[in-house]
Amino acid sequence: MKKVLENCITEQKKLRSYAEFKTVIKFETYLNTIMNQKTRVNLTRFRMGVSDLEIEKGRYKTTPMPREFRFCKLCQSIKIQAVEDEKHFLLHCPFYISFRNVLYKYIERKYKKLSTLESNEIYMVI
């Protein structure tokens, strides 16, 4: 299964974001701890890379858009060209700073060293 995940990363296929932070395929604890079904489903979709981000929507256009041109519409409105993928949404998009701050405060209660991590490391923690 690890080989399948590695192929997802190198070939930019489905599960690409999941494959970036997962090394072991196992039942995830959050599936039992998050009681709200809608929240659980949305988190699972996000982690699996099947969200409503441009990185996914561009794949399904009549003429599929190359990955490097699947820009965040919000960032484009302020003349920033950034591919809207899970990392951009979660770590970098300036339009979600206030939400990100709330999320980080929540995570820091459980993971005290969050502020010392690089963004790729934060992505793995989240």
Quick description:
This protein is mainly alpha-helical. It has helices at 2-11, 16-21, 30-33, 37-48, 54-57, 73-76, 86-92, 97-110, 119-125.
Helix fraction bin: 40-55%
Into which percentage range does the β-strand content fall? under 5%
Low confidence ranges:
none
Please tell me the overall pLDDT: 83
The major pleated sheet works out as: none
Classify the secondary structure makeup into a structural class.
mainly alpha
Give Rg in angstroms: 15 Å
Total of DSSP H or I helical runs spanning 4+ residues = 9
The beta-strand count equals: 0
Overall shape: globular
Order of helices and strands: HHHHHHHHH
**N→C terminal distance:** 23 Å
Report what the structure shows.
This protein is mainly alpha-helical and 126 residues long. It is built from nine helices and no strands. The relative contact order is 0.10.
List keywords for this structure.
9 helices, 0% strand
Give a topology summary.
Layout: H1 2-11, H2 16-21, H3 30-33, H4 37-48, H5 54-57, H6 73-76, H7 86-92, H8 97-110, H9 119-125
